[in-house]
Amino acid sequence: MVRLPHPSTYKQKIDPAYNARKAAQIIAFFATKEGGRINILKAMKLVYLSDRKSIQESGFPMLEEPRCSMPHGPVNSTTYDFAKGVYTAEISDEEGWSEFLKEVKNYNIATARKFSVSDFDELSVAEVQYLEALWEDFGHMNQYQLKDWTHDKKNVPEWEDPCGGSASIPLSRILGYVGIEDSNEQEEMIDDYAQIDKLFASLN
């Protein structure tokens, strides 16, 4: 039997600027579009593309977390860890994840109950518009079609084949590929905002 580290060990790995509740709402938004249940691989591709869309349109990601290239395409790392059940139920409850999503079963992740867009209070009006646009473009694709689409360098040039492992995708690389001018300055600004979020998180 594989023994997992004590929950406090996992807790320390969660960046205080990461918003698990918001990440869960993004997935719940897409799962709701599919009747309350969505394939986890498809969900992870849509989360990454949501982040990418937000960076392209506003200069800022929707989620503050590491991103990496994996064999099935680019992934938001912390969100993927939550989705695949790395964190305990207590942590998922505390971080607000389980308020919106159930654990993965048969490679699908389901919403905790029926939701409407008004329930997703972590998402701004602009972010909901990004998600709606993404669903319009990619909702008809299954997980394998999305995987192939994100593997195409014409579509997601920042993804690199990790040869069976994983490789970090620096935020600066995404900023550059989506056409953000002065990407280094923009990355510093994003980091500054993340530090502010961490400060407020430490006061709660």
Tally of alpha and pi helices: 9
| Spatial strand arrangement across the major sheet | 3-2-5
What percent strand?
5-15%
* Annotation, overall tally of beta strands: 5
What sequence of helices (H) and strands (E) makes up the elements? HHEHEEHHEHHEHH
Uncertain runs are 1-10
Protein name: Panacea domain-containing protein
Pfam family, one: SocA_Panacea
InterPro entries: SocA_Panacea
Domain Antitoxin SocA-like Panacea: 44-154
Describe the protein's architecture and organization.
This is Panacea domain-containing protein. Residues 44-154 form the Antitoxin SocA-like Panacea domain. InterPro entries: SocA_Panacea. The chain has 204 residues and is mainly α. The protein has one domain (7-199). The chain is 51% helix and 8% strand. It has nine helices and five strands; from the N terminus they run ααβαββααβααβαα. The strands form two sheets. Strands 3-2-5 form a three-stranded antiparallel sheet. The chain has a two-stranded antiparallel sheet with strand order 1-4. Strand 2 and strand 3 form a beta hairpin. Helix 8 (171-177) crosses helix 9 (183-203). The longest helix is centred in the C-terminal third of the chain and has 21 residues, at 183-203. It is globular, with a radius of gyration of 16 Å. The model is unreliable at 1-10 (pLDDT under 50).
